[in-house]
Design a protein that fits this description.
single chain, 2 domains, globular, 74% helix, 8 helices, Rna Polymerase Sigma Factor, Chain: A
């Protein structure tokens, strides 16, 4: 891959991949490492994408796989967690992201891809390599769990 094309992908998708990795790993340093690894794999690959959306979907899939591999690794399981205090523009955003981080990884990813990246359930199903029905079910469950967490925080009213 050409350096200028890679730089273009990094400029466009770094935030997306970082947020996705952070939703799985809950640590900014590990998330940055995973994001860099995803871009490195793109740079070293011989893949040519038909559209920008195909490239974005490929990068998201690689990031998800790298996160899952990291979570399964012995090194990752044997370490202690450091808290990340990421500043937010407003308190409501902070509360919502905190609640999203408390969801299971499969729910966090679905919420981020649907609400923050604007993917449809069909596109999420393709990216995550699951059925559309499962993507829709997970999104519905994720919404319910997120709503319950927000209720507990006193942020969401019935």
């Amino acid at each position: 891959m050409e350096s200028d094309k890679l730089a273009d992908y990094i400029a466009k998708y770094h935030g997306t991949l970082f947020r996705l990795a952070y939703s799985y790993l809950k640590n900014s340093h590990d998330s940055e490492d995973i994001t860099q690894e995803a871009f490195l794999r793109l740079y070293c690959s011989e893949i040519h994408f038909e559209t920008e959306e195909n490239a974005k979907a490929w990068l998201i899939r690689v990031t998800i796989n790298l996160c899952k591999d990291a979570l399964k690794s012995v090194w990752f399981k044997g370490r202690s967690e450091l808290s990340d205090n990421i500043p937010y523009e407003n308190k409501s955003e902070s509360v919502i992201m905190d609640c999203i981080r408390r969801l299971k990884p499969e729910y966090r990813g679905i919420i981020l891809l649907y609400y923050y990246e604007g993917y449809s359930t069909k596109e999420i199903a393709e990216i995550c390599r699951i059925s559309r029905t499962l993507a829709t079910t997970r999104l519905s469950r994720a919404r319910k769990k997120l709503k319950n967490l927000l209720l507990k925080e006193g942020y969401y009213e019935k």
